[in-house]
Amino acid sequence: MTNRTSRTIALRLATALMTAPVVVPALLVPTVSAAWIVYDPTNYGQNVLQAARALEQINNQITSLQNEAQMLINQARNLTSLPHSSLQQLQQSLQQTQQLLNDAQNIAFDVNAIDDAFTSRYGDIEISATDAELIREARTRWENTVAGLQDAMRVQAGVVSNIDSNRSEMSSLVVQSQSATGALQATQAGNQILALQSQQLSDLIAMLSANGRSAALSEAERATAAEQGRIQRQRFLAPGSGYQQGNARMFNN
Fold first, then answer.
1. What is the torsion angle, in degrees rounded to the nearest 10, for the CA atoms of residue 23, residue 26, residue 28 and residue 32?
2. 190 φ, ψ (degrees, to nearest 5)
3. What tens digit of pLDDT does each residue of 131-153 get?
4. What is the rounded distance in angstroms from the CA atom of residue 253 to the CA atom of residue 250?
5. pLDDT, tens digit (0-9, with 9 covering 90-100), for 180-212
6. Which of 58, 65, 156, 250 has the fewest CB within 10 Å, making it most exposed?
7. What are the backbone dihedrals phi and psi of residue 45, each rounded to the nearest 5 degrees, phi first?
8. Hey, is 25 helix, strand or coil?
């Protein structure tokens, strides 16, 4: 082989090597990752703000639920009834006083009975009435007066006997009112205190009525006695009664 031929082959081989693609093993080329972690401050701030707003809404909802629960508790307290009742004690006191008035002797607390009694026993006295009739009617009026005084004292005793029970009941109601858990209990305690005061007022009216009755009977007896005395004096001084006027001498003068 000539030198010229050798140079031509070498030139072609060099050209082929230069123009041939270069194949590099995959292990020798670094692999590039497809996902990168990117920090975005704006997006992060918005996420934090949204989380804070969501937390605030949750807190508001919790507060609202707590308020509703407290409202239900308060409503339950306001609807709780008072465990103490003084109705029975008040009714017993009123019945006792009423019974004392109903037991009025001789002349009852009745308009018709009073009219009948004053017409027959405290009315005009007939001049023709006998001494026995006058004495009998006078004794009846005296008995009415004494009975009226006794009735008044019995009513007074009944009213006084109610004072201790009323004082104890008032103390209990005041304690119940001060320790009331709701509006209903406070209202019921107040209503019972008013009822107790009404019962005390009824006792006072009953006592005044009994005292007034006894005083009226005493005055009626006194007035009728004065009228009877006038009739008896008139009968004594009437002509033909046997009374003779004369001069009376005293100390033998």
1. 120
2. -65, -40
3. 898 899 999 999 999 999 999 99
4. 6
5. 888 888 899 999 999 999 999 999 999 999 999
6. 250
7. -65, -40
8. coil
Q: Residue 252: what are its φ and ψ, rounded to 5°? A: 60, 30
Rounded-to-integer distance, Cα 232 and Cα 126, Å: 10
Dig out the tokens for 198 from the structure: 């009404």
Q: Which amino acid is at 138?
A: A
How many separate helices (H) and strands (E) can be counted in the chain? 6, 0
Q: In whole angstroms, what is the distance from residue 176 CA to residue 194 CA?
A: 14
Residue 78 CA to chain centroid, in angstroms? 13
List pLDDT tens digits, range 48-69.
Answer: 888 888 899 999 999 998 898 8
